[in-house]
Target: SAM-dependent methyltransferase
Amino acid sequence: MNVNKLSERLQAVASHIGNDAVLADIGSDHAYLPAHLAIRGRIRRGIAGEVAKGPYESAEATIQEAGLQGKVEARLADGLEAIRKEDGVDTVSIAGMGGPLIASILENGKNQLKGVSRLVLQPNIHAGAIRSWAVANGWRLIEEDILEEDGKIYEVLVLERGEAVYNDSQIRFGPFLSERQPPAFRKKWEREAASLQKILNRMKEASPSAERDAKEAEMKRSLDQILEVLANGEENDRQ
Ligand code: SAM
Model:
């Protein structure tokens, strides 16, 4: 991956950034996403926020090498502290981290989100943490994507302001993804089901205890929920 050739994962994130956006990419590492979009004239301005010095310096280097000074700025900051009021940021992207970490960055930096109208988030795991945060904080999903790259499956969540109510299953699987069930979605959850089934089979051999029984019941519930969603998808395909 480089500034001219994004990974498919980051291309999917890029595709949801509106034309002419003022973008803050938080946890930007090499700043490939904002730099790529700026080179193509897709964003008005970009901020590459990084909490760690090494990645921040990589972001600086990308910006210098691409001659994007004045268009993209790297900032060493924790989470949304990279955003200043005068920036006029309208879009925030956070990619390549776990869902709970992304949700905590959003929660800790709520004040910096005042002028922001769109969030494009790409959790590597536990996307449900972001959907729960969204519901509790006046954001709603307007689109969801899922893709496979190098054997890993990634979700992309696009949020705008608004109220939404999602049930447990929609929080876990995604309201759009569980409805459409593209191949990467089915693969992700079939994998997850197989892994839960394997653990459950092994648990049967362990000596019984209240703790084991509770864990087993919880895993069984989790597995049943996956199987139900996948069965609904097959049912929809038949209709
Ligand atoms: N966004 C890039 C991507 O998707 O390819 C880089 C992902 S990299 C795995 C995660 C980056 O987030 C790291 O460079 C890390 O330093 C940064 N990061 C983690 N927590 C952060 C925080 N609270 N604020 C800013 N950056 C953070």
